[in-house]
Design a protein that fits this description.
The complex is a heterodimer of chains A (about 60) and B (about 300). With about 60 residues, chain A is mainly beta. Chain A has one helix at about 20-25, and strands at about 1-5, 10-15, 35, 40, 55-60. In chain A, strands 2-1-5-3-4 form a five-stranded mixed sheet, with helices on one face. In chain A, strand 3 and strand 4 form a beta hairpin. The relative contact order of chain A is 0.32. Chain B has a single domain (about 30-305), classed as Rossmann fold (3-Layer(aba) Sandwich), CATH 3.40.50. In chain B, strand 9 (about 285) and strand 10 form a beta hairpin. Chain B is globular, with a radius of gyration of 20 Å. The chains are: A mainly beta (about 60), B alpha/beta (about 300).
């Protein structure tokens, strides 16, 4: 499984999907999100692997 | 996904530029994009002293970082607004700015002005007790920041105030102003606001940088920034428009930059003009000496009277 974190939410998904798919599955817009694995930025076509911890970061801020 | 420049592993895909870049080439591309924007709009030169308005957020810290790294004389200015709201928002923001200096740019100069210490009341205090701020602290906050930024820039002999407004910020404002046909605001929205009658020059070197790119830059450079939204900005209209525009961008890559850049081009070419483009006359406030269009006292000084 893959652990996914976004703001104060955490959930698990099956390994083997792309980051883009993972973002879309969470009902988020890939244009508004960046993904980190082990603190490093990863591209949207990256395939997740068993044991990955993926942190999703919203890029939208301001008021 | 491979880097378009070196064939290494890409960390970001920028569909609007048809460019996929690795960390090193992204940081290089980002700096050159900012450099080209500064030159295109003649914002400032390396001989000028520039005051960067920093909030502890990703955009302002990324801007300060990239300006220093590319050889500009950029000093930071943080305004302590006294926003706590149970999460210590202002304290955290200042801490991020100080951490940035300690970790990324130890020689950088950070000017700090604390509103409550210097003037006696914080933004939440003002918002609670004044007519202007009642139910809308963002209005008081904007007024306070504009006044203090201008004062520090003028007193310190800075050639310009640089803010971290990115392309998404500008497009969201453009969309709001277009939907409401705010001709006055549309006529003034620009990458550079020239100095006049005591008003410091204001520049936005990130107007061609997507918000996603600014965030990627801070993450790659290892810049810690305040991730929390200002508690008063939660649910703001600007963020709602940004999300809408990102839906559009998802369907049509490059839509945001096209909307903004073509607006600037059309206005520059005189293809669109707005009524009321005349500039209001300014005179010095009798108390603080800062420029105002109002009567004897500027809006900032009136705030403390009321």
């Amino acid at each position: 499984m893959v652990k996914v974190m976004y703001r104060d939410r955490t959930w698990e998904m099956k390994a083997g999907s792309t980051i883009r798919h993972l973002i879309e599955q969470a009902d988020l817009n890939p244009e508004s999100i960046l993904a980190l694995r082990d603190g490093k930025l990863i591209n949207e076509a990256t395939l997740t692997q068993k044991g990955d911890v993926i942190k999703l970061v919203s890029v939208v801020s301001g008021g | 996904m491979k880097c378009s420049k070196c064939g290494g592993l890409a960390v970001i895909n920028m569909r609007q530029h048809r460019l996929r870049l690795c960390s090193d080439h992204f940081v290089e591309w980002f700096a050159s994009m900012v450099q080209r924007t500064i030159e295109k709009y003649e914002m400032f030169t390396r001989a000028d002293k520039v005051l960067v308005a920093v909030s502890g957020g990703k955009d302002s810290l990324a801007l300060w970082d990239v300006l220093i790294r590319t050889g500009y004389q950029a000093e930071g200015m943080y305004i302590g607004l006294g926003i706590d709201e149970g999460i210590g928002y202002s304290a955290k923001s200042l801490d991020m700015c100080r951490r940035f200096v300690a970790k990324q740019q130890p020689d950088a100069v950070l000017h700090v002005v604390d509103l409550a210490q210097e003037y006696g009341e914080s933004v939440p205090d003002l918002a609670r007790s004044r007519q202007r701020g009642r139910g809308k602290p963002c209005s008081v906050c904007g007024l306070v920041k504009r006044h203090i930024m201008n004062r520090v820039a003028r007193d310190g002999g800075f050639a310009a105030i640089a803010t971290g407004h990115n392309l998404d910020d500008e497009v969201a404002v453009l969309m709001q102003n277009t939907l409401h046909w705010q001709a006055g605001y549309l006529s003034r929205q620009a990458p550079v606001l020239e100095a006049r009658d005591g008003l410091a020059r204001k520049v936005k070197p990130f107007v061609r940088i997507y918000e996603r790119e600014a965030a990627a830059y801070t993450l790659i450079r290892g810049i810690d920034y305040i991730y929390d939204e200002c508690p008063f900005a939660k649910g703001s209209t600007t963020n709602f428009y940004k999300e809408l525009l990102n839906q559009l961008e998802l369907r049509s890559p490059g839509a945001k930059q096209q909307f903004y850049l073509q607006f600037l081009q059309a206005r520059e070419a005189g293809e669109i003009q707005f009524a009321g483009e005349g500039i209001a006359e300014l005179h010095p406030c009798v108390r603080c000496g800062q420029p105002t269009t109002a009567g004897e006292l500027c809006a900032f000084c009136r705030l403390w009277e009321s």
